[in-house]
Amino acid sequence: MTEKIFEYKDDKDWYVGKLEGDGFRFSFSSAELDLIVTSLNNLLLNEDNHFKIALGVIKYSSPYRLIHFYLELINALENRSLKAVAHKGAVLVVEKEKVLFVHVPKGGVELSAFLDGAELDFGDTILIATRNEGKTKEFRQLFAKLGITVQNLNDYPDLPEVEETGMTFEGNARLKAETISRLTGKMVLADDSGLKVDALGGLPGVWSARFSGPDATDAKNNAKLLHELAMVFEPEDRSAQFHTTLVVAAPNKESLVVEADWEGYIGVEPRGENGFGYDPLFLVGHTGRTAAELSAEEKNAQSHRGQAVKKLMEVFPQWQHNL
């Protein structure tokens, strides 16, 4: 097996893992951590793989983070789809809607809270509040690696359209997510994304999709943008950002909000065949390439949506824990 180093690091937790064949090692001596990882090892790993994971723990604060990271190693080693789910103070390990392991903190959790009759949401499906297949395709590629199935509003043709009347990206995203969640009873992710051009005072902004008028198309919007910047000649004066605000809503739950920007410049002519919207005009950083010239993998790794989804995944478990 080709050696690969896995790492998770934030302000409170830092883990490093490696798949190898020369022993099962830890760099810590905590009884709690040893119990967690040994239990996962014995319950989940095939017997032949019991000594093929090396794990280093530099900083530790969260059982969820540790379990989530260790499951990544097991999934890579055995091609599985194990996931960690935070629920009412406990951490569940699930696979294909089966609970395989439950970790509770020292002192336990309240039984009445844990068994409150609510269905556990394992995050296997999320409804994206859009009918745009291009946007859905990007989210589907981003969520696929997390084992999450993505639906969009085309799967719910009877739902009414939610008019975007907000004056901010968050206002529009919140309106869509919370309205559709209330109508369907499902966990819903809505985004409002757009292009902010500094020379135009942040326009087209929340009006990006309809910048050229009520009958706007991508081609018309791009043509209008080039017209508006016709007298702006210096590249540094054509700076812009793709912005995304993501809102996740669930019934009777405070919504989760994350934001991200992708820095770049507006070119003088469209280039590239990939992407959609303003991608053919958006020069990524100082690369000289437009967003439409990037592969899907390249774009997802750095785009505003890719960055926002990464931020979302960092805070989503705790938000889900409080469902």
From TrEMBL:
Active site: D192
Highest taxon listed in the record's lineage: Bacteria
Class of the enzyme per the UniProt entry, highest EC level: hydrolase
GO molecular function, one term: XTP diphosphatase activity
Annotated keywords: Hydrolase, Magnesium, Metal-binding, Nucleotide metabolism, Nucleotide-binding
Family annotation (Pfam families): Ham1p_like (PF01725)
Cofactor note: Binds 1 Mg(2+) ion per subunit.
Catalyses which reaction(s): dITP + H2O = dIMP + diphosphate + H(+); XTP + H2O = XMP + diphosphate + H(+); ITP + H2O = IMP + diphosphate + H(+)
Necessary cofactors: Mg(2+)
GO biological process: nucleotide metabolic process; purine nucleoside triphosphate catabolic process
InterPro entries with a match to the protein in the record: dITP/XTP_pyrophosphatase, ITPase-like_fam, RdgB/HAM1
Amino-acid positions noted as binding substrate in the UniProt annotation, renumbered to this chain: T130, R131, N132, E133, G134, K135, S193, F276, G277, Y278, D279, K299, H304, R305
Gene Ontology CC: one annotated term: cytosol
EC number(s) stated in the UniProt entry for this protein: 3.6.1.66
Binding site for Mg(2+): E163, D192
Family affiliation: Belongs to the HAM1 NTPase family.
Assembly mode: Homodimer.
Purpose of the protein: Pyrophosphatase that catalyzes the hydrolysis of nucleoside triphosphates to their monophosphate derivatives, with a high preference for the non-canonical purine nucleotides XTP (xanthosine triphosphate), dITP (deoxyinosine triphosphate) and ITP. Seems to function as a house-cleaning enzyme that removes non-canonical purine nucleotides from the nucleotide pool, thus preventing their incorporation into DNA/RNA and avoiding chromosomal lesions.
Descriptive protein name: dITP/XTP pyrophosphatase
Provenance organism: Streptococcus hyointestinalis
